[in-house]
Specification:
The complex is a heterodimer of chains A (53) and B (195). By secondary structure, chain A is mainly alpha-helical. Chain B is an alpha/beta fold. Helix content of chain B is 30%, strand content 15%. In chain B, the strands form 2 sheets. In chain B, strands 3-2-1-4-5 form a 5-stranded mixed beta sheet, sandwiched between helices. A two-stranded antiparallel sheet of chain B has the order 6-7. In chain B, helix 1 packs parallel to helix 2 and helix 2 runs antiparallel to helix 4. Classes of the chains: A mainly alpha (53), B alpha/beta (195). Chains A and B meet through helix 1 of A and helix 1 and helix 4 of B.
Chain lengths: 53, 195
């Protein structure tokens, strides 16, 4: 079975991590959201394919 | 029948590893003959998704039962969807664990034994915070961080999985991804309000 991608883990805040601006975080989240939507579409397509087999 | 045991070394005399997705080895044992096969777990050092990937690998080996110390929600859902019996809380030597299973001393786990990301050595994230103080200034901040997983990694199709099992597994993956998407959308909405 194809694997449609790993979940995106949310880690705890690092002690010495660089700060992310609001805009950077928004950009990052939007691209993550798009990637997840694509994975969901692939999963949906595969489920339909299996159901019609 | 085959039983997969998370292991600290590729031997029947090794200890059961307390982690499922990130254990170093799996020992797959035929409990009747005690013949075994040892597998390296290539997902042990994965950045993300180790539980699901490992569960898929094990499901593809034609295993019926998994013995391990702990099992997180993603791995548990994937194993259950593939029809495997999951037994957590197992410790000690693999050989003894198999004997205990044969003697009926274990009960199936009805749910994951740990939360997400159990067994990860360390994480990377970003935090934002503000603080103020007098004399010795002390600040504290709150933040949330995100790490990226390995992305889309096609894997070979496990032959032991039926279409129904694959559909169940895909549905559980879709459900998890849907939850992550909701969390991301909530955070975006929260950030957009702060303009």
């Amino acid at each position: 079975m194809p694997f449609y991608g790993a979940p995106f883990p949310y880690f705890r805040a690092g002690l010495c991590a660089p700060q992310m601006t609001r805009e950077q975080e928004l950009d990052f989240l939007r691209s993550q959201g798009e990637a997840i939507k694509e994975q969901l579409e692939q999963i949906d397509a595969r489920i339909k394919e299996l159901e019609t087999e | 029948m085959k039983i997969a045991v998370s292991a600290t070394a590729p031997s029947l005399d090794a200890e059961v590893d307390a982690r499922f997705g990130r254990c170093q080895y799996f020992v797959i044992v035929d409990p009747q003959t005690m013949q075994f096969e040892a597998l390296d777990n290539s997902n042990a050092m994965a950045a993300g998704g180790a539980g699901i990937s490992t569960a898929q690998m094990i499901a593809g080996k034609g295993v019926q039962v998994v013995l391990t110390g702990n099992c997180g929600p993603n791995a548990y859902q994937t194993l259950s969807a593939a029809g495997l019996e999951v037994i957590t809380g197992v410790a000690g030597r693999i050989r003894d664990a198999i004997e205990a299973y044969k003697a009926g001393r274990f009960q199936s786990s009805a749910q994951p034994s740990v939360g997400d990301h159990y067994g990860m050595g360390m994480g990377v994230g970003y935090g934002m915070g503000m603080g103020r103080g007098m004399g010795r200034g002390m600040g504290r901040g709150m933040g949330r961080g995100m790490g990226m997983g390995p992305g889309i990694m096609p894997q070979p199709t496990p032959q032991a999985m039926s279409p129904e099992q694959e559909i169940e597994m895909l549905k559980s993956q879709a459900q998890m991804l849907g939850q992550q998407l909701n969390a991301i959308q909530r955070r975006i909405a929260e950030l957009e309000k702060r303009k």
